Amino acid sequence: MANKGPSYGMSREVQSKIEKKYDEELEERLVEWIVAQCGPDVGRPDRGRLGFQVWLKNGVILSKLVNSLYSDGSKPVKVPENPPSMVFKQMEQVAQFLKAAEDYGVTKTDMFQTVDLFEGKDMAAVQRTLMALGSLAVTKNDGHYRGDPNWFMKKAQEHKREFTESQLQEGKHVIGLQMGSNKGASQAGMTGYGRPRQIIS
């Protein structure tokens, strides 16, 4: 990775807008959840966007997080004994987390790109991915989520209804309100609209 100098003009404005989306209160909640989910051995980051980025950058904590949402026999990501020091290994570890998060159910629109975290380009996107993962974990309610369930919104769940054949047949004889009604207002007693046009010669 080449070091990038400061950005100017339009690219600086764009980067500034992206940075404003980062939520420091949300960062605190996510840190609390990650520590509750993975245990205190993951440590805590320095406060702020940069500290959060450095904490998650090598992908190890993210991998431990997604692994903690599975039972012991089916961990999706291999976590190395020693955190990777080479850049491509760190990026590979983050990519493995993203694949596991997608397999867990996080939608593509909620996923960040590896570069968003690694270069700190869009830490708000990283927060969005972690929020989506937390919401799924709370919604699944399979015993693997640790922490306060109120930290995340439960996702809407499918509620299938089963109807018997006779209920389906009855439904065919009911006129829905969308079809209109033949009761109530009618045109009885109505006259033509307006007066006829006067033609003066």
TrEMBL record:
Predominant subcellular localization, coarse grouping: cytoplasm
Xref: InterPro entries: Calponin-like, Calponin_repeat, CH_dom, CH_dom_sf, SM22_calponin
Gene Ontology CC annotation, any one: cytoplasm
Calponin-homology (CH) domain sequence ranges: 24-137
Region listing for Disordered, in residue ranges: 181-201
Superkingdom of the source species: Eukaryota
Alphabetical list of SMART domains matching this protein: CH
Family matches, as PROSITE patterns: CALPONIN_1, CALPONIN_2, CH
Subcellular location: Cytoplasm
GO biological process, one term: epithelial cell differentiation
Keyword Nucleotide-binding: no
Gene3D superfamilies (UniProt xref): Calponin-like domain
Keywords carried by this UniProt record: Acetylation, Cytoplasm, Muscle protein
Signal peptide as annotated in the record: none
Entry annotated with the keyword Transport: no
Pfam families noted in UniProt: Calponin, CH
Family matches, as CDD domains: CH_TAGLN
PANTHER family named in the record: CALPONIN, TRANSGELIN
Family as reported in the entry's similarity comment: Belongs to the calponin family.
Protein name in UniProt: Transgelin
Native source organism of the sequence: Otolemur garnettii
Gene label: TAGLN
